[in-house]
Specification:
about 20% helix, about 150 residues, Immunoglobulin-like, 2 domains, about 45% strand, five-stranded mixed β-sheet
Length: about 150
């Protein structure tokens, strides 16, 4: 290797190491693990903690319902208004089922034909009464009463 190539190699290596050290120190300072003030043996080390807050997401709660040969279990649920992830676990031998969620008064909110063992869907429930049912099986229904917070 020529003298000029060695000089360029070592210069590049030193700059790379210094850049990496600067990035690491900056990351440590941002995360609060580095002390910005000079610490001596007699002074306690002060740590700075930076807290990042994301936009607050509405809490999603789960409603798990099993569909058995005698209907939904539980057959009735009472919850507070809010965002819910419905999880319906099919425990019957039928696979070609159509689930329907209606609000009291016959307003259809959602209908889905599902052939899986588990169906999931998020809903924002306001105060009122809802009925989760299986089309073509009128006795299979779950009444969900939502109370205002």
């Amino acid at each position: 290797m020529s003298k000029m190539k060695r000089k360029v190699f070592w210069s590049t290596l030193v700059l790379t190491i210094l850049s990496a050290a600067a990035v690491a120190l900056n990351a440590a300072r941002i995360s609060g693990t580095a002390n910005v003030e000079a610490a001596s043996e007699t002074k306690p080390v002060k740590k700075r903690v930076v807290v990042f807050q994301e936009k607050s997401q509405p809490d999603v709660q789960g409603l798990i319902v099993a569909l058995r040969s005698n209907g939904f279990s539980p057959a009735a649920i009472v919850v507070a208004d809010g965002r819910y992830l419905f999880i319906v676990q099919t425990r019957v031998r039928l696979r070609d089922l159509t689930y329907q969620l209606d609000r009291e008064g016959g307003v259809k909110l959602h209908e889905v034909n599902d052939q899986k063992l588990q169906w999931k869907k998020e809903f924002d429930l306001q105060a009122g009464t809802y009925v989760l049912s299986v089309v073509d099986h009128p006795k299979w229904h779950c009444v969900i009463t939502v109370k205002a917070n």
